[in-house]
Specification:
The chain has 67 residues and is mostly helical. It has three helices and no strands. Helix 1 packs antiparallel against helix 2 and helix 2 packs antiparallel against helix 3. The chain is elongated and about 35 Å long.
Length: 67
C-alpha cells in the first residue's frame, strides 16, 4: 500500500462510519449497509484508482437510492 491508498481509505472509512451511525439510528438499511462496506473495502483493494471509484459510487448510493 502507498500513502494515497491509506489516505483515501481513511477518508472513505470515515464516511462509512458516518453512514453506519446514521443508518443505525434512523433504522435505514441502505446507509447502514453502504457504511459497513465503506469501512471494510479499503482493506481488500490495493489499486488506488479502483479504491476511489468504488468509494465515490458507494458514497453516492444512499443519496440516490432512498427507500
Amino acid at each position: 500500500m502507498n500513502t494515497s491508498s491509506l489516505l483515501w481509505g481513511l477518508l472513505f472509512g470515515s464516511f462509512g462510519l458516518g453512514f453506519f451511525v446514521y443508518g443505525r439510528k434512523q433504522k435505514a438499511i441502505i446507509p447502514l449497509v453502504c457504511g459497513l462496506i465503506l469501512m471494510v473495502y479499503p482493506y481488500f483493494i490495493s489499486n488506488t484508482i479502483i479504491l476511489v471509484i468504488l468509494g465515490v459510487v458507494l458514497t453516492g448510493i444512499p443519496y440516490f437510492i432512498r427507500i
